[in-house]
Q: What sequence folds into this?
């Protein structure tokens, strides 16, 4: 049966539509198929794109290969290559991103849309000043502290600033050509009942652990703005699955002298993080986020599969593939989103993140805040509850700081618990919070702080007994 004209877009009428580089046979471009639900659907052009693009996308983000003695995902290797090619221009490329992110709110007028946006627009100017100083190698005053100025610039601003646009080049392969729909249907029986999100959110979760929370947030934000997530779903994913990468977990484990327990640490952290998320989705403030799509966009919920789940997964993948843009157009759209998101994140890292690190280093704020967690540490029998409380509290400024507080402590149980908490808390102001606020995801700073407290307290209560049992 030939495809009805009503099912073909104007672009599909020309040879090679759907991909600027390839043309397909008539068999690829015509005909229809009966779906698992009994409906009739036109066969999308160039069906090979689903397999080829998905395999390439998965390999770029989830395979680990060794190059030059470094074993990491290909996207990270590409980032290293980009930095090598740019050489001494790298700092100034990041400065250009910061400049774009600083002036854009004033050009678009978005700085007027609420007190929070006005505040961020103003403090971003501070971020721009810090960026220029750091790029020039000048760290005045407290910025000269290696754990403040150089840390923010070299460990956060430059990697995050570059990884988002670089990763966005390959991100289109994961989200545009049916893979999210295919995986989403397969894992739907787990994701929806346990975490109250569509199955396609599994891609976001895995992207964080093996890649970067900033890339995972880019996926979440783009899918949300396309109407495939509701506000509540996007908020759950952003605050419950956007962890630091497994490679950064190695740094945490090494700092805490836990590498001899690496396998246990990694998998227990994974389990605890997602267990805590399963709890927080059922209590305020996440429960109170409106379960509606982004304003002005029609909701495209994930269909509930019945019967042959694999057949339904294939049908949904082909449905997405039929409406997918060409490779160049899809990649350009994703890269543009990545550049804009990166330009919004980095100024905040260098301003909000800086404020958090200054408070943590030079004031007793987190010593006082730590008393909130002393009762939880005491109940589960953690040694030195006051130190445990401070370590847990300082994580809101930067997730790596808790490891530095308890590093060298004689209690392995304490070090292990804090190591898991540093990752499972997810929310920290040096990078994750600015990253979320740079998106359209409807979660406020107040809600993020409450969520941080809930996640830290729950993680301590869950992890410490397991650490006592397993270590």
A:
């Amino acid at each position: 049966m030939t495809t009805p004209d009503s099912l073909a877009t104007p672009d599909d009428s020309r040879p090679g539509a759907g991909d600027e580089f390839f043309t397909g046979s008539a068999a690829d471009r015509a005909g229809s198929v009966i779906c698992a639900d009994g409906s009739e659907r036109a066969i999308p052009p160039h069906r090979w794109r689903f397999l080829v693009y998905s395999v390439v996308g998965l390999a770029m983000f989830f395979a680990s290969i060794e190059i030059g003695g470094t074993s990491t995902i290909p996207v990270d290797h590409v980032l290293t290559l980009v930095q090598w090619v740019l050489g001494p221009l790298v700092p100034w490329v990041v400065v250009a991103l910061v400049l774009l992110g600083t002036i854009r709110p004033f050009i678009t007028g978005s700085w007027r849309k609420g007190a929070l946006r006005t505040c961020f627009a103003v403090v971003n100017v501070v971020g721009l000043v810090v960026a220029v100083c750091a790029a020039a190698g000048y760290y005045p005053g407290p910025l000269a502290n290696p754990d403040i100025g150089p840390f923010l610039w070299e460990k956060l601003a430059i990697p995050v600033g570059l990884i988002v646009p670089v990763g966005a080049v390959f991100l289109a392969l994961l989200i545009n050509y049916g893979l999210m729909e295919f995986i989403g249907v397969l894992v739907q029986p787990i994701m929806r009942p346990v975490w109250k999100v569509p199955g396609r959110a599994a891609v976001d979760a895995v992207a964080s652990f093996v890649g970067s929370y900033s890339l995972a947030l880019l996926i979440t934000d783009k899918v949300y703005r396309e109407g495939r997530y509701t506000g509540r779903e996007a908020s759950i994913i952003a605050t419950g699955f956007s962890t630091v990468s497994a490679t950064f977990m190695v740094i945490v484990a090494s700092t805490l002298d836990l590498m001899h327990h690496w396998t246990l640490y990694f998998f227990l952290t994974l389990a605890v993080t997602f267990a805590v998320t399963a709890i927080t989705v059922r209590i305020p403030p996440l429960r109170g986020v409106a379960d509606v799509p982004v304003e002005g966009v029609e909701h495209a919920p994930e269909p509930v599969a019945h019967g042959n789940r694999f057949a339904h997964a294939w049908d949904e993948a082909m449905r997405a593939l039929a409406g997918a843009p060409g490779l160049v157009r899809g990649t350009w759209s994703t890269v543009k989103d990545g550049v804009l998101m990166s330009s919004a994140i980095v100024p905040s890292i260098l301003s909000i993140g800086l404020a958090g690190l200054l408070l943590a280093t030079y004031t007793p704020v987190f010593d006082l805040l730590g008393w909130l967690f002393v009762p939880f540490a005491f109940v589960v029998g953690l040694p030195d509850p006051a130190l445990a409380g401070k370590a847990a509290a300082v994580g809101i400024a930067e997730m790596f700081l808790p490891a530095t507080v308890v590093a060298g402590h004689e209690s392995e149980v304490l070090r292990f618990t804090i190591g898991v908490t540093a990752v499972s808390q997810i929310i920290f102001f040096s990078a994750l919070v600015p990253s979320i606020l740079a998106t359209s995801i409807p979660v406020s700073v107040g809600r993020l702080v409450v969520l941080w407290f809930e996640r830290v307290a729950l993680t301590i209560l869950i992890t410490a007994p397991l650490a006592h049992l397993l270590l």
